[in-house]
Amino acid sequence: MWVSVCDVSHIAVGEMKYYTHNHFSFIVVRLDSNTFSVFQSECPHKGGPLQKGELRDGKIICPWHSYEFDLITGEAVVVPYSEKYGAWRNTGKLKFIRHRVVDNRLEVDTE
Ligand code: FES
Fold it and tell me: Is the CB–ligand 1 distance for residue 45 below 6 Å?
């Protein structure tokens, strides 16, 4: 189901916003004037709150263990402590959410 989130003018280029809809929480990052990265707020590593993370150089950095996820591919491109903790470091990718812009409003697919 498509849900309207906000007017696209409410998110500046390079800005991150956190939204909830029922029990569904997600993050929107505006990458440039026409491109958004939209993904679930739960970190794919151990569930950290990515909305409290930091954006840097096209990545979001999780506040729990500082993994860095690429905002376009979703891949973990920086995994700290990998030698020390072995398999504990394993993670998935950001869980992207389908989205679209209709009449200057950002919509996400909640299904
Ligand atoms: S929970 Fe996000 S890096 Fe571990």
Answer: yes
19 within ligand 1 shell (Cβ under 6 A)? no
Q: How many Å lie between the centroid of ligand 1 and the Cα of residue 80?
A: 10
What lies within 8 Å, CB to CB, of 57 at 6+ separation is none
- Going from N- to C-terminal start, the domains of the chain cover 2-109
Cβ atoms of 13 and 33 closer than 8 Å? yes
Ligand 1 centroid to residue 11 C-alpha, Å: 25
Q: Which CATH architecture has domain 2-109?
A: 3-layer Sandwich (2.102)
Q: Is residue 67 in contact with ligand 1, taking CB distance under 6 Å?
A: yes
How much distance in Å is there from the Cα of 49 to the middle of ligand 1? 8
Mean of all residue pLDDT scores within the chain: 94
> What's the pLDDT tens digit per position in 17-67?
999 998 889 999 999 999 999 999 999 999 999 999 999 999 999 999 999
- The answer to whether 18 and 41 are in contact (CB under 8 A) is yes
